[in-house]
Amino acid sequence: MGKTPQLKKHSKSTSIRSRSAKRASSPSLNLDKSLRFAKPPPTSSNYRPSVLSAHHDGGISKKSKKAKPISRQRRLRQEKGIERAEAVMDKTEKKVIKSIGKQRVIKSRRAAWDEHNERIVASKEVEDLDKILQLQSSAQKSASNAQSSVTPELEPVANVTGPTEIDEDEIL
Q1: Which of 37, 54, 58, 110, by CA, is between 20 and 30 Å from 68?
Q2: pLDDT tens digits, one per residue of 82-92
């Protein structure tokens, strides 16, 4: 190993900008005991936190350009785009309505079996009542037809008022 040189003894004082000089000059809290008993300044009545808050519209902003009138072609393109967007919205509304209907069917399938059975029984009872009413109405119709066949009503064939003259040409 190589030899290390001996440390030089400086006859000069330490530099003003050195770390040790800075530490020596900093005041400590132990020296000044008056800071412990100091009170904060009283709050003033004209305290406005809005002055301290951030200004959102502050700072540098670019000048806005003057809007040029839209050309005829550009206006027509925009109108076509709006019409297409409306058509797409109509299609999506129809699709949403269809999907809601499908969702209702799926939810109805998810119901408990007891509810399904009650619905089926109720629908069968309604169908049975309809059949009974149809049979009763057809029985009433057949009864009224039977009465009309027993006592047939005579319909007049022609209205004869008196003797009429007959042409010889009509007879042949």
Answers
A1: 58
A2: 999 999 999 99
